[in-house]
Amino acid sequence: MEEAPSYSPSDSPQAVPLPDSPAISNSSSPPAVDFLGPLDSDDDVDIEVDPALEDDFSDYESSGYDVSTASLSASIQEYVYENGRRYHRYFGADRNLMPTDEVEQDRLDVHHEAMTMILGGNLHKAPLDHPQRILDVGTGTGIWCVDMADTYPMAEVIGTDLSPIQPMWVPPNCKFEVDDAELDWTFNEDYFDFIHMRNLAQSVSNWSHLISSAFRCVKPGGYLELVELGQITYSDDDSMKDDNPIKIHFETTKKAMEKIGRPPQDTENMKRKLEEAGFIDVKVMRAKQPIGPWPKDKGLKRTGAMVLLACDTGFHAYGMAAFTRILGMSTEEADRVCREAVAACRNKNYHIYNYMHVAYGRKPENA
Ligand SMILES: C[S@@+](CC[C@H](N)C(=O)[O-])C[C@H]1O[C@@H](n2cnc3c(N)ncnc32)[C@H](O)[C@@H]1O
């Protein structure tokens, strides 16, 4: 096993501070957000808890809810094995603090379904009109690219990632490249109709550079869309107390990421970053992601069930390297925080959610 790299705040000179961070919020109600062009007007409505869950037990199974899961070159394949997980290290073991093994690939695919459901079955919010070239940066398993290639069969869809974990059998109009998106891009200027980046906050050290690269490579009139999960948990009915293990996990992850200058993103600072890079007509939205199948609404319940499934391994994926390498926790302590969060997700008395933040902007036609 390799020795883990150590961090200090000076390791990350390009930190992008959050306006409302880095303090860990103790509030269980969302802060007021000034929506500038919200796409969903009802996204702040309280999620009603399924009354069928109201019995004396804490687990979903007691209410009859089934939470079972039944349901390149050699050097590029360089890995670090740590805490029983496989991390990719070709571009440096600290570039992506999350594992890329099969367990993580399954989680990414499940979570893709949940996030697609949150967007009402859509793969994007930017208003695309017969796009010809589409890029997904940090594509993970490439599942978004495959779905986009099916949705837009006339478009060429390219996915890039640090790790070669994408499938071989994909639609003919879809391909993948191994690349570090934080280095200078080799794509031609004014090339893509649409560039998409989802859940990269824990990896990105210099957003301005990344978004400027995208601005250069998107066509005039084309769009960049950012999608990020918020790192603050909420409950509308006070079912989440300050010592809730899910809340503790989210806060600990946020603390670690802020320490290395990779803070979580939200609609406000994503909008600002897009505008600073030159994008116009920036639109934002945020939608609640229920953690568990506790909502009464059928669609949200399905989404929450998918999220619950992803959480089975997600807390360890987000937490283990971050807690041990950045915060210096022992493996046992980090594992305990993750395991308690996994267990808490299965407690139907906790009606917790976080936000999925979306922002997109257009490159001016005369740029
Ligand atoms: C949390 S996963 C999200 C994957 C995918 N975007 C999704 O939403 O399903 C983050 C992915 O970004 C990739 N990544 C992180 N930093 C990157 C970089 N600098 N360049 C390219 N890919 C990167 C990681 O390898 C990982 O596959």
UniProtKB/TrEMBL annotation:
Residues 1-46 are annotated as: Disordered. Residues 21-31 have a biased composition (Low complexity). GO terms for molecular function: methyltransferase activity. SUPFAM superfamilies: S-adenosyl-L-methionine-dependent methyltransferases. This is Similar to mRNA 3&apos acc. no. Q4IPA4.
